[in-house]
Every structure is written in structure tokens, then in C-alpha cells.
Amino acid sequence: MSHDTIYRTTGARTAKMLAIMLGICIAGGAIFFTFWDYWTSLPPGSQMHKAETAPTQGAVTGKEFDVEINFIESADFKQLAFNALPGEQGHNPDVTASVGDKIEFVVNNHGKSFHSFGVTEAAEGFEGIISGTEVASANNPLKPGSGGKSSFVPTKEGTYYYICTVPGHRALGMEGKIIVGPKGEAPKAAAPTGVKHDFDLNFIESADFKQLAFNALPGEQGHNPEIKVKSGDTVTIKTANNGKSFHAFAVVSDADDPNSIVFNSAIKSANSPLKPGEGGEVTFTAGAPGMYHYICTVPGHAALGMSGNFIVE
């Protein structure tokens, strides 16, 4: 007479299995509720869907300006906006530009939810974001208190929109207009004025090397001073490397591109920089009116803080 084998487990093994399953549930619940604000900020739909083809950006005319954009929310989360709530001064400000102008958006999340930023031609929805204008994304958004920068160069006249690209947030109010007019004549440099300016811009670093700057660290008087001159003025820059790293100087048209040097304004270079304790000097004529930047041209140093505004009027 044959008997079927009956497999049994012990009480200890059963308890161990239940403990493992309980641990998995607890860990999953903790992760879910940690990101509760994010989950509740997303309405039902295909959040993972992307636009088929995003428009591209155009060539820069030389005109550049900054626009500060802050994500904010009403206390009940029923109103979302940029800079100010509906009815308040500064709410979702219109941005006016010409074809080829470079708009630098400085974006910060001042809310309590998760947000992301982009520019689109579409009058509704959250697709068709123009490549290069994104700050974070719906799948990897800005946390409260975080921020980023975005550049946009319009290729044609018309109305564009800057929006929160988290699905549903645009419909709740996070939308502003960018009104683009025809391409203006590129600014031209004036004849030499005979006016001379001298500026001292010295490289410094924090002790932990997390903050780099000119003249003074962030929060201190004299930090990265703004320079204003007129087209045709003669400018002399004197600099000293008061840090412990290697540095080089130049005025550039794009703070993110150390190769966009203008006016023959370089002092040394990334390949042949100023050593600690060394100094340098350069004299040049300010060219066409516009917003420029003086930076350390050693890659990465401008992003760490060695960047100031150089304005030619």
C-alpha cells in the first residue's frame, strides 16, 4: 500500500516568513507616505507619457535677461501660481521678449508640494516642453526649498507658456505667458567714449571649498559686485587669486559657457590659470549693450559661485 508524501513546515519557519512579509509591508508603507504630497499632487492619467517631438530653440541675438519664477500654493492647495496668488501683485508675470533673445529663468520651489518647470507652445496640457527649458520633471520633481535654472531662446513670434509640468498643476494656475515679438536689430558697440573704469575682482573660497566667489563670500558685503559701464568705455580689471585653488578670469556672454568670452577680457585660462597668490590685469573696451557675466573660466567654478553680472548700457 502506497502513501503520498505530506510536506509540513515548522512553526518557526512560518513565523519567520510572516515577519519578512510584515517588514516588506511596513517599508512599502513608509515609502508611500513619505511621498504623500507628491502622490496627491498627481491626478489620474498617463503621467509617464512624453511628447512625441519637442520644439527646439533658436540662435541668440546677444540680448539676455533673467526672470525669477517661484512656485507657490494657497493654504488649501486649491490655487497654484508663480510668484503671487491670483489677485496679488506679481501673479504669473508676463514675460516680453524678441525672437532670439535669451531668457534665463531662475526657478525656486517655495511651496510645500513637488513641482517642475518647462516652456511650451501648447495652450493647454503639459506636453511639448521645449528641449533645454526643463527644470526637473514630473517623475523627478523639485522638492520644497529646491530650485534650478532654465534657458529659453524663442525661434519665432507668438505666445509661449511657462508652466509647472507636473500633471494637473497648470490647470490649477501654474501658467504664465511669454510674449515674443519680431527679432530686433542686434545691439552695436558704441565708439570709444574716453571714459575709464578700474575694478578689483579677487578670487576667494570658503574653507570647505563649497562656496567660490569674488571679493566676499555669499552673505558678506561686497560679494560678486555688479558692474555697470557704457558701451565704448575702457575697463580695467585687476584680480588676485586669494584662494588655494587655480583660477582664471573673463567676461562672457553665457555664464554657463566659459568659452563664450567677449571683449578680449581674459586673464589667463583654464589650461594656464593663476596659481594661489598670483594676480593679473586686463584692459578692454566694453562692446555692444547687453547683459554679460564675469566668471572664473575654470570649468565648474562659475557654477559654485564665481559669477557676477557685467552690464553694458
Describe it for me?
The protein is mainly β. The chain has two domains: 64-181, Sandwich (Immunoglobulin-like), CATH 2.60.40.420; 196-312, Sandwich (Immunoglobulin-like), CATH 2.60.40.420. Helices cover 10% and strands 30% of the residues. The protein has helices spanning 11-34, 36-41; strands at 64-73, 80-82, 95-98, 102-109, 117-120, 147-152, 158-164, 175-181, 196-200, 203-205, 212-214, 227-229, 234-240, 249-252, 279-285, 290-296, 307-312. The strands form five sheets. A four-stranded mixed beta sheet has the order 2-1-4-6, with no helix packed on it. The longest helix has 24 residues, at 11-34. The radius of gyration is 27 Å and the shape is globular. The termini are far apart. The model is unreliable at 39-53 (pLDDT under 50).
Quick structural summary:
It is built from 2 helices and 17 strands. The chain has 313 residues and is mainly beta.
> How are the strands of the largest sheet arranged?
2-1-4-6
How many β strands by DSSP? 17
Q: Which structural class is indicated by helix and strand composition?
A: mainly beta
CATH fold assignment of the largest domain? Immunoglobulin-like
Distance between the termini: 105 Å
CATH architecture tag of the largest domain: Sandwich
Number of domains: 2
Strand content: 25-35%
Element order, helices and strands?
A: HHEEEEEEEEEEEEEEEEE
CATH homologous superfamily designation of the largest domain: Cupredoxins -  blue copper proteins
